[in-house]
Every structure is written in C-alpha cells, then in structure tokens.
Amino acid sequence: MCANSCASLWSVVVHIQCGFWPTRKWILQRSWWITGELFSRLVWSRIGAERDADLIVDSAGSPVVEGGSSATARDMARFGKMHLQGGVAGGRQVVHAECTDPATTRNQELIDMFADGCDADPANTEANHHDCWWVWNAALGRYAGYGLGGQNLLIDRTGNTVIVKLSSCPKRMDPLLTSFVDSVNNALFDHLGNG
User: Fold this and answer.
1) I want to staple 99 with a disulfide (CB 3.0 to 4.6 A). Which of 36, 95, 116, 161 is the partner?
2) Which of 60, 76, 100 is the last residue of a domain?
3) pLDDT by residue (tens digit) across 41-98?
4) Can you tell me whether residue 6 is helix, strand or coil?
5) Global confidence as pTM
C-alpha cells in the first residue's frame, strides 16, 4: 500500500463519527496489519524523530491504542510541533490538517457532554475530550495528551508553544497533582502568549 493511499485511509478513519477510538484502531488494523508500523512509516519517520518510539502490544501483537507508548522528550516535542503547525513537519504535510483541527474547533455538544461527566472542571467551561486529546480551550488552541505516571504533551496554538513533561509520579493517576500541573502549564501558556 503506497503512502498516499495510507494517508487517504487514515483520513477516512479519522472522519468516522462513531467517536469510539478502538473502532478506528480496529478498522486500521484490518486495513493494514499493524497500526504501529503504519504510524512509524507515515508519521514518526517524517517528523524527524531521533529514536524509535516504544509501543505496548497485546497478546495478538496489536498496539494498545489508548496508551502504552513511550518516546523521548525531544521526539514528543517534534510530534507536538507537527500538531502545532497543522500537520506539517520539516516543510511537508505529514498528516492532513483536518487530523489536527478537531482539538482546535469549538464543539458545544462535546463541551456539554464533558461538563456532565466525572472529569468536568467547573472552573473551565470550555473543556472537553476529543480524538484522544484533553481540550482545555479549542478557541485558544490549547489541548493536551496525558500519559500514566505524569507524562504530558501540551499544545497551545495561540502562544505557538509545545510543552513536554516526562516524569514518574508515585501514583498512576493523581488528580490533585494533575490539577496543580495543569494550572502551572496554563499560567505558562498565558505568560508566553502575552510575551
């Protein structure tokens, strides 16, 4: 399968409106054996990554799609920069801009659903979760990916900023620490955006 048809397949899969990421993963896996190999060929190798990323796989050898990846801070920053630039890395379009736009397009339906959920933050009435991103404020282009143990990839299009934080926290998930780190990152984004 050539890169153009893979990219077209990815574009189709991204636009499936089921909202259920494992379904998208399943479609990709049935279309082209291993999504890790597809991701490596179409994205990771094109962002200028210095090292391979590690993926946790299940007993069938399929990558765990909702977590289980590991990469260096510099390579995660490259991935974040590609998102910051609408899918462009090294002067070429790596993924379609539409793949990076949902996190920066305000969607009231998603905001309302998120506000009714257990992760809602009354202090942030713009927050939602979309395409595996925690969207802080779509209008500002602020969104984040969180990993277990404190890994964060944060993107702020308004301030043209990417933050990568790799850490090992005592707990897999620590809501108080996450809240503190988010407030620090938001303050940093605000400061850089005004500078």
Assistant:
1) 95
2) 100
3) 888 899 999 998 887 777 766 666 556 678 899 999 999 999 999 999 999 999 888 8
4) helix
5) 0.76
Q: Is 144 helix (H, G, I), strand (E, B) or coil?
A: strand
Tokens representing residue 175 in the block = 């809501």
- Which CATH number covers residue 127? 3.40.710.10
Non-local (6+) Cβ contacts of 56 within 8 A are 63, 64, 67, 68, 69
Angle formed by the axes of helices 35-42 and 3-14, nearest 10°: 110
Q: Report d(CA 127, CA 52) in Å as an integer.
A: 32
Q: Read out DSSP for 64-102?
A: PTTS-EE--HHHHHHHHHHHHTTTEETTEESS-HHHHSG
Helix (H, G, I), strand (E, B) or coil at 7: helix
Q: Are residues 149 and 70 in the same domain?
A: no
Residue type, 84: L
The answer to whether residues 90 and 108 belong to one domain is no
Gyration radius from the chain CA atoms: 17
